[in-house]
Amino acid sequence: MINTIILDIGQVMAHFRWKEYLTDCGYDEETIKRVSKATVLSKEWGEEDRGILSDEELIAAFIANDPGVAEEIRKLKGSPEKLVMEYDYSADFVKKLKANGYNVYLLSNYGKTNFAYARSHFKFIPYVDGGVISYEVNHIKPEPEIYRALIDKYQFDPKEAVFLDDSLANLEGAKTFGFHTIHFTEFDKAVEELKALGVNI
């Protein structure tokens, strides 16, 4: 029986809208391609979520990937409120799960600075019971250490938990611990899959 719900944040509880942001900035197609390649599509972006490098080190690494768009890179890094926006359903979703007796935890790849913004602005976060964010443990999904950190912190049985994530790789990582998993592609579909697992929502 499921008693614990584990939620990713990006593309599950909030929209990571970097493509829309770069378009909103009015950049031409070539600039968008260069900024994307230097930042969100680079290996360094994952290292931001790992939480070892400082913001200054990360910006320097991104700029080193393409010094010609340094100004645009700095602007992107300084705009967390425009990069990720909470979905309208998120707070009510968590509140319903809590009202029906479920433990609700977050398990998300997130850098320290960006999560500080999320923690203070996203309405759903005060309703969850806790979680593990990648920068806190210096590991990112699907590395096994981050799943183990969550299990050890809250002492729940993964076989009684379901993990919702938009990444198939992250779900495969969770399955090795015995989690039930749902590949999140749209909210209504995820709710139906939760119900199929016996979750009361």
TrEMBL record:
What GO molecular function terms would the record report? Answer: hydrolase activity
Supply the InterPro entries for this chain: HAD-like_sf (IPR036412), HAD-SF_hydro_IA (IPR006439), HAD_sf (IPR023214), PGP-like_dom2 (IPR023198)
The signal peptide stretch is none
Record keyword Magnesium present: no
Q: Keyword DNA repair on this protein? A: no
Keywords, alphabetical: Hydrolase
Which Pfam families does the record associate with it? Hydrolase
Check the record and name the CDD domains matching this protein: HAD_sEH-N_like
Q: Which NCBIfam families match?
A: HAD-SF-IA-v3
The protein, known as: Putative hydrolase of the HAD superfamily
Q: Which organism is it from?
A: Anaerocolumna aminovalerica
